[in-house]
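FAQ: What does a ligand-bound record look like?

Like this one, built around nicotinamide-adenine-dinucleotide:
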Amino acid sequence: MKIVADENMPLVQELFGSFSSVVSEAGRKINRDYLLDADVLLVRSVTQVNSGLLQDTKVKFVGSATIGTDHIDQAYLSEQGIKFAYAPGCNAQAVAEYVLAAIGYWADYAHKDLRKCKVGIIGAGNVGSRVTQVLELLGIEYCLNDPPLHEQGDSRQFVSLQNIQQCDVVTCHVPLTMQGQHATHHLINQQFLSQMPPGSLLINSSRGAVLDNTAALYCKQAGQDIDFVLDVWENEPNLNIELLNQSLIATPHIAGYSQEGKIRGTYQLYQAVCKWQGIEQEFVLKDLLPEAPKWNASAELRSDTGFLHQNLRRFYDIKSDDQRMRQKLAQVLRQSGATISEEFDNLRKNYPQRLEFLELM
Ligand SMILES: NC(=O)c1ccc[n+]([C@@H]2O[C@H](COP(=O)([O-])OP(=O)(O)OC[C@H]3O[C@@H](n4cnc5c(N)ncnc54)[C@H](O)[C@@H]3O)[C@@H](O)[C@H]2O)c1
Ligand SMILES: O=C(O)[C@H](O)[C@H](O)COP(=O)(O)O
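The answer part, i.e. the structure of the complex:
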């Protein structure tokens, strides 16, 4: 069997090497020529998987080691009888910890008492639910918006988008969808932003186009008092530098980039390929995950969320991710050579090791 895999997936050789030959390549460079004699394609989110990529290749299995699947033409795969697997929930914990770090930084910067703040969560799936666990741990109030889950009979209490607009912090955890009653493309638009209260915070770590980036920039340029924490950008990797300059925190799509999250992503595909091929699994997930010290956040912080950012920096300093991105992209703008897009990808490829630090149930 021949597997072609994105080079940013850890442990591919270790997990798949005993029953397959593995060729790794940069996700954006994987093209049809690489796949002509490949049986399996393993991608992350930067490879668009569609008929243009797969037509007349041997590929019979596509796996994406990610939560988001908007880069995959699943209708085409199913039409062609190509098996598809992805990695739901693999990096949900990392994103929840990113959101916590963002809120902690903002509270410190804008002098907010988090015990008096309410967080509005849009999308209550794997990531949104993990965010609720983190907020409960710290005793921070929140509300949820998720019309699809509400319609499916989820028993949690949901509120309208208008209610979410009124929160001190809004954080988005929806997939990017272009069609249907609950399409999320530009779900956060000019109208939504204009209703947010002064001094509020909007976090987008879902997909860039869930937030209308032009509207966000307009609202900052018009002097509206909203802070933005942006991990994902419209037209990634070619993001709008003016919007970056107007953001409180800007990061290069790394909210889910914990070591554990990436390893779980590869492992979930290993399980799926083994099942598809009837191969007995040789590896157990817990033997592959790093041992990381956990933070007893509940005891340390529940009583005083004012020090959240200062305490949390020991485990994850979101501002260092922001500074690295600003410095690298500023260098690109000063000198010719690499482009913004290339540097955005380099920041992601060379992202420093980050370990998960919260113990959640
Ligand atoms: N920045 C990152 O590194 C990173 C990491 C992981 C996931 N993500 C993104 O986050 C998204 C969410 O991840 P997840 O694991 O929670 O997915 P999930 O599928 O478990 O949950 C998504 C939830 O959004 C809800 N939803 C869909 N349309 C909605 C709408 N219009 N309004 C409100 N809710 C809506 C769904 O009903 C679902 O419950 C992913 O699709 C991915 O694009 C980004
Ligand atoms: O959907 C996901 O799981 C995340 O957005 C993931 O972190 C994307 O990472 P990438 O595929 O771009 O390496």
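Follow-up question: can I read anything off the structure? Yes, for example: Residues 92-110 form the longest helix (19 residues).
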